[in-house]
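ARCHIVE CARD
CATEGORY: sequence design from structure
SOURCE FIELD: tokenized fold
FIELD CONTENT:
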């Protein structure tokens, strides 16, 4: 504990949500290193974007909203989004002098003394009056469990490990998951793979027409209600459905997006259903989403019986010193920007009052 340092605010994570929060802290008079610190476990700027597969070019990215105070302009749509956005985040950190510390792993956040929180990291301990948690979901890929999974002789990988379609040339691939990643993987893989099979737990819902502001607000409101009740957040796309674009229509017509119900078990050679159907496979690609990376908050006991953290706005109901940005309804680029501003506004109110232990 000899290397413990004190600040007013610790921001954990330097993706869209963390950088937005840091920007608003700086804009309202907080100085980096003196009043707040941003800790990021990645070795370079870019948040989760830097780990996306090379075939996800910037032109294929839907809904990438610029960070506050600095537009992303002139990007080549043919370049990998991992490169474009990593460069943008690098320039952003430099432009606003955010002084992100990396790589720093945050191991636990626990109660300190005098109403402060202790943030235990690979770079020592920080004592803070408020915490903005912006750790996203990329570090917690969700792997469902099915009977026989350990017997499969082929390869199993998650979207987080997806290397691009060329790696699946000549292979029989089962893609699991009805979200945007699953459909994108299938459409990319089809020209390379020997065969593809798409399985989902629920019938996928395709959305006709443009994604209006009203639809977006309704979707966010539904996700927000879940976190208000202390339930694990769902993705916005699970509420809105999948956009029915021209490439998606073509993939449906070509039989690429021909959904099958979820299999019942995995065999050494593939997957099978209780009705006797069997599909041989070389690869099972789990496009099954992610969960919030909040295990380091466990000592604060924020989780509700429903399994999630109950949040009002961005504030954890169980502890007003903790704000979750990029969690639930703010888990989008535009949502993260707004949430960062809201969290800083609430934290300023908190810090003007006398510190009180949770």
């Amino acid at each position: 504990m000899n290397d413990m340092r004190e600040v007013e605010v610790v921001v954990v994570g330097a993706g869209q949500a963390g950088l937005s929060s840091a920007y608003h802290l700086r804009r309202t008079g907080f100085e980096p290193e003196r009043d707040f610190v941003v800790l990021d476990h990645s070795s370079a700027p870019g948040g989760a974007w830097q780990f996306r597969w090379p075939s996800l070019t910037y032109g294929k990215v839907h809904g990438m909203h610029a960070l506050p105070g600095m537009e992303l302009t002139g990007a080549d749509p043919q370049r990998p989004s991992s490169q474009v956005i990593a460069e943008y985040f690098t320039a952003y950190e430099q432009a606003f002098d955010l002084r992100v510390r990396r790589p720093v792993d945050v191991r636990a956040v626990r109660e300190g003394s005098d109403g402060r929180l202790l943030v235990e990291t690979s770079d020592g301990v920080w004592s803070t009056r408020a915490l903005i948690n912006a750790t996203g979901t990329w570090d917690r890929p969700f792997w469902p469990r099915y009977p026989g999974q350990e017997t499969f002789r082929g390869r199993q990988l998650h979207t987080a490990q997806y290397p691009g379609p060329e790696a699946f040339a000549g292979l029989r691939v089962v893609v699991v998951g009805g979200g945007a990643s699953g459909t994108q993987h299938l459409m990319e893989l089809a020209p390379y793979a020997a065969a593809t099979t798409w399985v989902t737990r629920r019938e996928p819902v395709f959305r006709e027409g443009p994604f209006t502001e009203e639809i977006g607000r309704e979707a966010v409101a539904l996700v927000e209600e879940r976190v208000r009740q202390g339930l694990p957040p769902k993705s916005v796309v699970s509420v809105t459905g999948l956009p029915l674009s021209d490439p998606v229509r073509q993939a449906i017509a070509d039989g690429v997006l021909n959904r099958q119900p979820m299999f019942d078990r995995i065999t050494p050679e593939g997957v099978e259903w209780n009705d006797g159907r069997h599909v041989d496979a070389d690869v099972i690609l789990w496009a099954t989403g992610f969960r919030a990376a909040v295990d380091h908050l466990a000592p604060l006991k924020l989780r509700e019986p429903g399994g999630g953290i109950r949040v009002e706005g961005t504030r954890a109901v169980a502890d007003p010193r903790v704000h979750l940005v990029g969690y639930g309804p703010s888990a989008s680029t535009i949502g993260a920007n707004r949430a960062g501003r809201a969290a800083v506004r609430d934290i300023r109110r908190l810090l003007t009052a006398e510190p009180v232990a949770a």
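CARD ANNOTATION: The helical segments are 16-27, 81-95, 180-189, 213-228, 237-240, 246-253, 333-352. The CA atoms of residues 18 and 134 lie 5 Å apart.
SHELF: design records, drawer C
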